[in-house]
Design goal:
This protein has 13 helices and 27 strands. The chain has helices spanning 10-23, 104-125, 171-175, 177-190, 211-217, 260-266, 268-275, 339-352, 362-365, 368-383, 431-447, 461-464, 493-497, and strands spanning 4-7, 28-31, 34-38, 43-49, 52-58, 63-74, 78-84, 91-96, 130-135, 148-155, 158-165, 197-206, 226-233, 238-242, 287-292, 295-300, 303-312, 319-325, 332-333, 387-396, 407-413, 418-423, 450-451, 458-459, 479-485, 505-511, 521-526.
């Protein structure tokens, strides 16, 4: 963005806000310096109506409707000049990239202080070892960010890599420490002077924030390095060793599979109504995907633009369909009054979101991973013939892992073995370990085997809950597949994958760069190669 540009026409105002929220999915909206909405959980609607730009935001805590008079584009934020309904004076709102409101100075000071605390704690806890080269400076070439303090513990010719993260950092930063720790260990081994052997890695996280790292660490290759996990109490400066092999019961719940055909039939009236608002030639491009027995989504290249929910009508035992439209958090209930607005938005969506669209269009860029997923759903058998495209589950809700959302794709290979697939459209440093989260839970559910009806063969949790009907799910551990466009695979992904346990059979699949027009496999790399 320019240092300070101003948009004033209603259409341009709405477009600017939409583009900012598309490019900053973790944005926050501030009023008087206080966070009013975290856009990761809030919903919004922005539109041009009667010559005005109307912005509505709502969450579980509050609902706000404002007319946007002006948008000022600044280096990292949008300043919105708005007016409440009936108010005389305009009020300023601010959209910022994240909810971290610390000033750069305060953030840097907190990180320096944490580094000093960590050095003192390491010195006291590991008597006879020398803390060496502790730093937190940015190193983009090797993917190291300033949120992590990293260094070495030296004792004679032996050495260990050390990395820590402070309690003031976000949960995402804390959960990302193992990726950076593996890269730091690998860096120390490759750039050592040859006199010392780096035998392992010590990872230090805040007290109470160790579980995700522990679950992941258990599935690394412990023959390749001695991985150790500690928590640090920053007030007492005490380090506590954690047993990452004993993390208790995994959060791996599974709801019963439902009939997709019955869900579509149940929501037919609502589906017909929303399809009637779509230009006739475009209806063939719509993908109808049931989410539950009473909820069905309508998608265009993976982007859900409408949803039908079937439920009981008010003051009646009869059923009725609730319909909403809008992409992502921009979801609005469909009413008679806004039906024409819905029709106009859908016409714009189908014009923008097509394979030959323009990258400057927010609707074209929105949710690229879901677009890739949609292409794989329809072309799995041709692209990856070793997998069962006819038994494919997308966005499995029962496998939620904290704030990570949902598993992208789950299927079987031709031998009945489970295959977990995680997709990315852009570079993601943390792709391997995020995918490992799901692999761990799918493996646990597959290992949860109980005798079938009549004392038959033991059935996995998937089979008992109605998944993969007609197929026998192999007891072998799942395969882990990671897919991304070839030039969007982060160079650090492979070094991290090499430290996975041999029990995790992984495959990295590079897709063609022009995957919207034609999805092809460019190359594949597998564990053990």
């Amino acid at each position: 963005m320019a240092d300070c540009e101003t948009a004033t026409s209603p259409a341009r105002l709405a477009q600017t806000i939409e583009e900012y929220l598309t490019d900053h999915p973790a944005a926050a909206l501030l009023e008087d310096g206080r966070i009013q909405f975290d856009m990761r959980t809030a919903r919004y609607a922005v539109s041009e109506s009667h010559g005005r730009c109307l912005l509505q935001l709502w969450s579980d805590e509050r609902n706000v409707v404002r007319s946007v008079l002006e948008v000022q584009e600044r280096a990292q934020c949008l300043r919105l000049m708005t007016r409440r309904m009936g108010a005389a004076k305009p009020q300023a709102l601010e959209l910022v990239p994240t909810s971290d409101r610390r000033t750069p100075t305060a953030r840097d000071a907190a990180r320096r202080n944490y580094q000093h605390i960590l050095e003192r704690a390491l010195t006291r806890s590991f008597v006879g070892s020398k803390v060496d080269g502790m730093r937190s400076a940015m190193d983009l070439e090797h993917s190291f960010g300033p949120a992590y303090a990293r260094g070495r513990l030296l004792k004679g010719t032996a050495a260990e890599a050390v990395i820590g993260v402070g309690e003031a950092e976000s949960a995402a930063m804390v959960d990302g420490i193992l990726t950076l720790g593996i890269l730091w260990l690998d860096h120390c081994r490759r750039h050592g002077d040859g006199r010392r052997h780096f035998g392992g890695l010590k990872v230090i996280v805040p007290a109470g924030a160790w579980r995700t790292t522990a679950e992941r660490m258990a599935w690394l290759n412990h023959a390749a390095a001695d991985f150790q996990l500690y928590t640090l109490d920053e007030r007492s400066e005490e380090l506590t060793a954690m047993d990452f092999r004993d993390t208790g019961n995994l959060d791996a719940r599974l709801v019963h599979a439902f009939s997709a055909a019955a869900a579509v039939e149940r929501c037919k009236a609502g589906l017909d109504r929303i399809l009637g608002l779509i230009p006739t030639p475009a209806r063939a491009r719509v993908e109808i995907r049931p989410h539950s027995a009473a909820t069905v989504g309508l998608l265009l290249h993976g982007l859900e633009f409408a949803r039908v929910r079937h439920g009981a009508a008010a003051h009646s035992f009869a059923g009725e369909d609730g319909i909403s439209f809008g992409a992502g958090a921009n979801e609005t209930p469909l009413t008679t009054e806004n039906e024409e607005l819905c029709r106009d938005l859908l016409a714009r969506l189908f014009l923008s979101r097509q394979a030959n669209g323009t990258h400057t269009d927010a609707l074209f860029r929105l949710q690229p991973e879901r677009w890739i997923e949609a292409e794989l759903r329809t072309g799995m058998s041709e692209l990856l013939p070793g997998l069962r495209g006819d038994l494919l589950y997308s966005q499995v809700p029962a496998l939620s892992t904290g704030d990570r959302g949902m598993l992208d794709l789950l299927t079987l290979d031709r031998n009945g073995r489970l295959a977990v697939m995680e997709l990315k459209a852009d570079e993601d440093l943390h792709l391997p370990l995020q995918a490992l989260d799901y692999w761990i839970r799918v493996r646990a559910l597959n290992d949860d085997r109980q005798p079938g009806a009549g004392g038959g063969r033991p059935l996995s949790a998937f089979e008992r809950q109605g998944y993969f009907a007609g197929a026998e799910v192999s007891p072998l551990p799942p395969r882990l597949l990671l897919a991304a466009p070839a030039l969007r695979i982060h160079p650090a992904n492979e070094p991290v994958l090499r430290y996975f346990s041999p029990q995790v059979e992984w495959e990295l699949i590079a897709l063609s760069e022009h995957w919207r027009r034609e999805l092809k496999v460019v190359f594949r790399k597998r564990s053990g190669e």
